[in-house]
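Protocol step 4 of 5: obtain the predicted structure for the target chain.
Materials: sequence only (see below). No template structures provided, no constraints applied. The aim of this step is simply to have a reference model before the mutagenesis design in step 5. Sequence pasted as it appears in the construct record:
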Amino acid sequence: MTEVTQPPSQPMPEASRIRSPLFDQVLHWKTGRRQAFMGLYRRMAHAGRTLESVGKHQASGDGAWAAVEPRSDTCNRQPQLQMVECLVNGSEAARCLRSRWPGPQTFSIGIELHSLRAGAPHARFFH
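Step 4 output (structure tokens):
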């Protein structure tokens, strides 16, 4: 399976506002750059953020930041991420991530839906 990379052509500015951070998040995760990873969230979400782990819980405002912080602590340790696909339409995006966990061939797939509106993004995670 080949990892998706940023397309060479320039997407529309609206699409670029969501596409670039989604690709950069994976890069920062892989290289263990926790501050850069968290910085992307904060720049995208200057007016707040809502995170939803579908079927589990939803958090917004400070609660959303509290949900992201522990995830970022595992940067570059586990899991190793591979972006399989990233589809962007306007200010909406869907991405498929493949996670490789430590151990003998342990993989999982996750789907994420991202909406970027008025500086208050909403993300839904199916992991």
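Step 4 remarks: The first strand starts at residue 50 and ends at 53. The helical segments are 13-30, 34-44, 62-73.
Proceed to step 5.
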